Amino acid sequence: MTDYTAPVDIGNRALQHLGAKRMIALTDASKNAAAVANCYDKLRQSELRRNVWRMSIRRAPLRPVDTTTMNLVAGTFDPAKQYLLASIVNYQGLNYQAQAIIAAGAGTPDVNVGPTAWLLYFGPVTASLFNNAGGLPAWATNVNYAAGTLVVGSDANEYSSLINGNMGNNPVTDGGVHWYKVGLAPGTTGYFAGEIVYAPQGPNPSIYVSLVSQNAVDPTQGPPAWNSAQVYSKGQTVTQSATIYQSTIDLNVNQTPTGTGDWVVVPGTQPDHMVGSQWLQLGAAVVTSLQFIYPIGSGPASQTQTRNIFVLPNGFLKRAPQDPKQGGVSYLGSPSGLGYDDWNEEGNYIVSREVQPIVLRFAADLAYVPFFDTMFSEGLAARIALETCEELTQSTDKLNMLMGEYNKFMGEARITNGIETGASEPPEDDWITCRI
Question: What are phi and psi of 406, to 5 degrees?
Fold first, then answer.
């Protein structure tokens, strides 16, 4: 357990380096608190960006942008409402995700509150049209399709008509002239945990976040019927006698839903509700059109003439190695043949010829102090002391001393982090490949 539990602990460690008076909180009405508070988040983010720290590594599933891809706009946090696990809200400009069931009136999201409540959201910021190939009709040669109609091709992929009066054009062999391919059927690949979809198309689409990987369940079908032999967790929903009930306890088995006790009707003040155990419907979230000029010549995924773009996840700071420790068991030290990827980071996007979803491994903008490695906190405190030294002490000697302290503490933290994460083999050079 770390003794660094909040930003004020790191700030006070910085003041200790300076020989300055400690503070009770960063909001204290003192010169010391104001100086630390002014630079704390800037330096925290800068130090997280300089290195891929083990503590900040996260993964997010990303799909290439297509003509049906939309921006996700999280609903504004409402303290009077109850939120379920995985709910996504916006509070004071930051997106948070619930780590448990949050009762109404339990408090507002805060970057310094632990994983029993809200944490910053580090997932995708776009939503894809749900691929319901299993519930769509197969393409028929004698049917006249309107623009936007969805069908399943003979290759088990889902296609959407680009024009009205679309008849006799096989979507599989059409080449993207009259049809565009939405993607693979969920039964083929399924959705990753954390992916966000919307359905159906229209003025008020429903928005869902997947709670499990390889998720091929159709969220638009609603919660499944209650099963007396199944064990339900707190928050899961079922349908019983045409009513949707929500479990109030874990290990809920063989308790017939009645609206009281172990099962309650989904509360009217709850914006989100689970669809079984596979999806959470984000009742307060909305989607907006994803329209941009840049990057020119990239996307959409439904054609193959150009590369595709993937929008970087919320809280992205730096790409981490995608295949860490690859080649760790190479024979006699020979290269393992790790190839280069074609991912180019441009603005807030990754540009690539990939057409399938990628699970991006990245360094996130971590803010919850107890998740920090203690050595990183020591280095960050030294950096804060270094930056505030002139303002608080006007001592050149102390400034030079702190430069050495920062290099020592943060250098040792980077070495330890490197040992813990292990070496990553670089992609194999063509010069070596052609000689093996």
Answer: -65, -50
In a domain, 377, yes or no: yes
Is 155 part of any domain?
A: no
Alpha-carbon distance values, 110 to 24, 90, 270 (Å): 18, 11, 20
**386 part of a folded domain:** yes
Query: What pLDDT, on the 0 to 100 scale, is given for residue 327?
Result: 56
Provide the pLDDT for residue 186: 47
Band of residue 132 on the pLDDT scale cut at 50, 70, 90: low
* 249, 56 contact by CB (below 8 A): no
Domain span holding position 392: 7-53+366-421
Per-residue pLDDT of 390-436, as tens digits, reads 999 999 999 999 999 999 999 999 999 988 887 777 666 665 556 55
Dist CA 382 CA 411 (whole Å): 11
Tokens of 79: 């303290």
Per-residue pLDDT, 317: 97
Instruction: Please give the residue that has the higher pLDDT: either 316 or 334.
Output: 316
What is the reported pLDDT for 182? 66
- Give the C-alpha separation, 322 to 1, whole Å: 29
Question: Could you give the CA distance from residue 375 to residue 417 in angstroms, rounded to a whole number?
Answer: 9
Residue 221 lies in a domain: no
Total count of domains within the chain: 1
Q: Rounded CA gap, 71 and 79, in Å?
A: 25
- The one-letter amino acid code at 207 reads I
